[in-house]
Task: inverse folding
């Protein structure tokens, strides 16, 4: 099993990796299918199902899907060009699909939110259709957005080993669970980051890997900085006020005075995480870590380490990200990182486990202590529901990332106080999360049909 660090950490746009990036990526894949087809396409249709239907408007799923059909991609997204293109499509009811010419598409008639039962493969389903001059369907494909920006066709999801891989490279340390990971670390004498690096180098060179990791951290850092400067009300109608800037300003004013109590270090971590998720809620550029809804946890903990922990240095960023990606890959491979599939335990819980592992690694933890840190962080998110008010990635998501970062650091600190021996293994915790998600009512899995979403006034 090989999931690259660049699979877990993808540059994209807010507010959701599964509900915004996923539909955009799926639409792009459908365009590729059409360009390879012998049929003469004249029009397009699409439908959103399951969680994508119930919370699609709040997550801008419709907007993302339409822009994807117009050739936009998350990693190169330009908001000004996107706004102009969307206005033209709504006015002319035509999409200028790259390589396919002008295709008929009326956003009000040709994009359907289907609130019936979800499609059989996953809670986040989409169907795309191409039509001929008479309006008859000549090509149809079903895609599933399975979390973290990953997209699979129905056939790919049905096939064995459906986890999307980065390529066919044979890796030297192919661990598929934490038990195997620790065994390989003991036999090789390598750290988790060193094994992950070796796996990455089976498909790329060292300079490319380092450049890619540097870019991931730079995008994360820039997102924090933008969020710490942003003010005003977030879009969507809930009138949620940005808070990271004011919290950060107050913390800066307290520095060097006797007003700062020791526990305010938690406020620093919360401010960093909330800055990211406020940017995400505003549709800004973020890094999936492992999802957009949980994008603030990993960068907040990494920023905390760099800016607040004595002895921290920029050279440790690669080990932090590689270790975090290794843990995230285990969670995704053996359970899920999708809120629509397993609730927020799969998003913020997974992010906290990744951040705890990365932090323990750069603090000098052994592989056993790192695994313990990840387990503690995930264990204490078990059962967490995904119940966004009005389907927006704002309440409770923004604050939840701050608390996820705090839990990650606390989990790592506890693990580093021990010798790595513990009762509940990370593998058991991941499997428990999977089972809990399977048992969880659909009302609490990103449909906004239960929990805070129905008990908080949203207008």
Result:
């Amino acid at each position: 099993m090989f999931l690259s660090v660049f699979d877990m950490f993808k540059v994209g746009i807010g507010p959701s990796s599964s509900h915004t990036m996923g539909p955009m990526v799926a639409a792009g894949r459908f365009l590729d299918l059409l360009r390879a087809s012998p049929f003469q396409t004249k029009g397009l249709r699409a439908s959103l199902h399951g969680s994508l239907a119930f919370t699609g408007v709040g997550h801008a799923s419709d907007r993302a899907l339409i822009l994807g059909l117009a050739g936009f991609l998350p990693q190169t997204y330009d908001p000004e060009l996107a706004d102009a293109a969307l206005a033209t499509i709504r006015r002319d009811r035509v999409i200028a699909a790259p390589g396919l010419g002008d295709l008929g598409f009326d956003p009000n008639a040709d994009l359907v939110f289907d609130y019936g039962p979800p499609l059989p493969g996953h809670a986040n389903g989409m169907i795309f259709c191409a039509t001929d001059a008479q309006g008859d369907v000549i090509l149809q494909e079903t895609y599933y957005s399975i979390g973290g920006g990953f997209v699979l066709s129905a056939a790919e999801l049905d096939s064995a080993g459906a986890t999307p891989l980065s390529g066919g490279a044979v890796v030297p340390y192919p661990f598929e669970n934490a038990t195997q990971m620790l065994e390989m670390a003991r036999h090789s004498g390598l750290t988790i980051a060193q094994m992950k690096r070796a796996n990455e180098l089976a498909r790329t060179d060292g300079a490319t890997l380092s450049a890619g990791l540097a870019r991931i951290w730079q995008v994360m850092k820039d997102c924090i900085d933008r969020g710490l400067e942003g003010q005003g009300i977030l879009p969507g109608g809930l009138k949620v006020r940005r808070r990271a800037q004011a919290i950060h300003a107050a913390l800066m004013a307290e520095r060097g005075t006797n007003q700062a109590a020791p526990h305010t270090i938690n406020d620093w971590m919360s401010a960093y995480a909330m800055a990211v998720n406020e940017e995400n809620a505003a549709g800004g550029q973020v890094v999936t870590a492992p999802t957009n809804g949980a994008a603030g946890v990993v960068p907040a903990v990494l920023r905390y380490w760099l800016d607040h922990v004595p002895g921290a240095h920029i050279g440790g960023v690669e080990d932090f990200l590689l270790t975090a990606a290794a843990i995230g890959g285990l969670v995704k491979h053996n359970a899920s990182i999708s809120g629509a599939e397993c609730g927020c335990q799969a998003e913020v819980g997974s992010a906290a486990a990744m951040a705890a592992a990365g932090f323990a690694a750069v603090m000098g933890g052994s592989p056993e202590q790192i695994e313990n840190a990840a387990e503690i962080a995930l264990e204490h998110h078990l059962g967490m529901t995904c119940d966004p008010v009005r389907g927006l990635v704002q309440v409770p998501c923004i604050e939840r990332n701050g608390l996820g970062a705090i839990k990650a650091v606390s989990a790592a600190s506890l693990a580093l106080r021990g010798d790595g021996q513990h009762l509940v293994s990370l593998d058991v915790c991941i499997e428990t999360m999977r089972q809990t998600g399977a048992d969880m009512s659909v009302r609490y899995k990103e449909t906004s049909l239960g929990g805070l979403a129905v008990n908080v006034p949203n207008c």
In short: The longest strand covers residues 137-147. The chain has two domains: 5-158, 178-202+204-455.
